[in-house]
Amino acid sequence: MNWRDKLSKELPLLGHRNWIVVADAAYPAQSRTGIETVATGAEQLKVVKAVLAALDKAKHVRPIIFVDSELRHVPEEHAPGITTYREKLTKLLADRPVSSIPHEEIIARLDQAGATFRILILKTRMTLPYTSVFFQLECGYWTAEAEQKLREAIRSAE
């Protein structure tokens, strides 16, 4: 099964607290049973674009997007092409909120989530450091604000 088919098959099963990761070529295979890694053989920005398109069509989930905070500091002299990559990724994610957090913190979040929830890692051919894009899935039809108001109403009723 190719990665596009895998994404199409898995996305309807994924929901709140699941993750999709579009990873670079050196991203490690994680050992948790809930984490599945698929080698795409594709260019990274092409996979990011496909994941965004699939998530835009999905009514049941919406993504919270994370990138490694180290990405903005990687110098061109040590990673030729990183400046162009950053520009293209910024353009691709332009209309979406994106949080930058340290790579090790994202890995820890994935490890913790993988203990209970499924994570789909789409590994690409990308050979630049700190270029993985992380999509934490949230409910697409219920917001954090709605949940907070519900909890307040429940507390008030008790």
In brief:
This protein has helices at 3-10, 44-57, 82-92, 103-114, 144-157; strands at residues 19-23, 35-39, 61-68, 98-101, 119-123, 133-139. It has 158 residues and is α/β, with parallel strands linked by helices.
Please work out how many helical segments DSSP would assign: 5
Question: Which fold name is given in CATH as the topology?
Answer: RbsD-like fold
Cα end-to-end separation? 51 Å
The total beta strand count reads: 6
Strand pairing plus helix content: what structural class? alpha/beta
- Helix share of residues? 25-40%
Percent strand equals: 15-25%
Globular, elongated, flat, extended or rod-shaped: what is the shape? Answer: globular
Q: Widest sheet: strand order?
A: 2-5-1-6-3-4
Low-pLDDT parts are none
CATH second-level architecture: 3-Layer(aba) Sandwich
Q: How many distinct domains?
A: 1
Describe this structure in words.
The protein is an alpha/beta fold and 158 residues long. The chain has one domain (3-157): RbsD-like domain (RbsD-like fold), CATH 3.40.1650. Helices cover 37% and strands 22% of the residues. The chain contains 5 helices and 6 strands, in the order H-E-E-H-E-H-E-H-E-E-H. It has helices at residues 3-10, 44-57, 82-92, 103-114, 144-157; strands spanning 19-23, 35-39, 61-68, 98-101, 119-123, 133-139. The protein has a 6-stranded mixed sheet, sandwiched between helices. Helix 3 links the parallel strand 3 and strand 4. The radius of gyration is 17 Å and the shape is globular. The N and C termini lie far apart (51 Å).
